[in-house]
Every structure is written in C-alpha cells, then in structure tokens.
Amino acid sequence: MKILIDNGHGQETAGKRSPDGRLLEWSYNREIAGRVNAELQQRGYFSSLLVPESEDISLAERCSRVNRVCSELGRRNVCLISIHVNAAGRGNKWYNATGWCCYTSNGQTEGDKLADCLCQAAARILHGHKMRFDYSDNDSDQEADFAILRKTACPACLTENGFMDCKESLEFLLSDEGKAAIVQLHVEGIEAYIKSCSAD
User: What domain count does the chain have?
Assistant: First the structure.
C-alpha cells in the first residue's frame, strides 16, 4: 500500500502559529511528517511526502496529487494522513483548549477504519492527555467537510495534534517527548491499518 503523508499548510500561510511565535505550524507539521515518513520507510513501507516543498501548495493541487497516485495504483491501494496542529484562536492570544483528534469526511467512509487505528494508537501513546473523540456515530473520529478528505479518492484522515495556543499543550508539542509520541502514534496507527487491510 502507498502511504501519503501530508504536512498541512506552507510558510506563506497567514497566522497558524503559537502566540509567542515558538511554533510555526507549517514548519512543525513538516518536521513531524518527515519523521513519520522516514520511520515508515525504515520499517519497509511504501511511504512518501505529499508536499516536499516549503511553500504553500493549494488544496486543489494537493488533492490532484493524491488522486493521480490513486489512478496509478488503485484507490484501495493508497491511504492519506494529513498532519496538523490545532488552535482555539487566531494565534494572537492564549487559550485553555487541549486534546488530540482525528477527522474523516462526513458519513461512513473508508477513512473510518484508518481513523480508528490512529485514534487507538493516540489513546494508548498519549495516555493521560485529553482525547477529543466523537462517538455519536459509533466511531471515535470527528467529521468535517475538509477538501483534503472530501476530494481525495482514497481512505483519508486529518489529525490535529494538540493546541499551539495553549501553553500546556505547546510545551508538550515542542518537547522531544511530545514530538516522539506524535510520530509514534502516527506510525503505529498507520501500521495497524495496513495490517488490518492485509488481513481482510
């Protein structure tokens, strides 16, 4: 299976930073995505970065890149994970919101199985941290009409890995421990998903 790792946003994206400027989301996402991709490759998986560039790549182009791979390999042989950091505001003041969550597109989709694997890994690896799960439709992911999920043909998820405008969350995000945990949950969640697909 081809794994596509999307690092959300680019260096020209307005806002998308912690109030103290210590975390720039575009840069942080690229660091985490790069480490996830490298670890997956080291474990022998067929993984690559969707956006190796530093600049903003439009959502339309991101979706086109995913769908070109789906056309080449078959959509069931591809999965997409888009990595982000959450915020309660616009990056100009501090809030108290914390927690980790995973999004899929609206309704029952093929991305739900991938999301379940990521959510299970997050709950295990981020033990003691708040999980922002939504069980209203009998699974743990949240749903949203994000283009990167709705306009791509393969199973797809978007993770929000804590809040950059919460001081407590920010310290964890920037710590070596926090970065390692976020990388680990993605790698183990993706690996569990691939193994479950192989067992089907």
Answer: 1
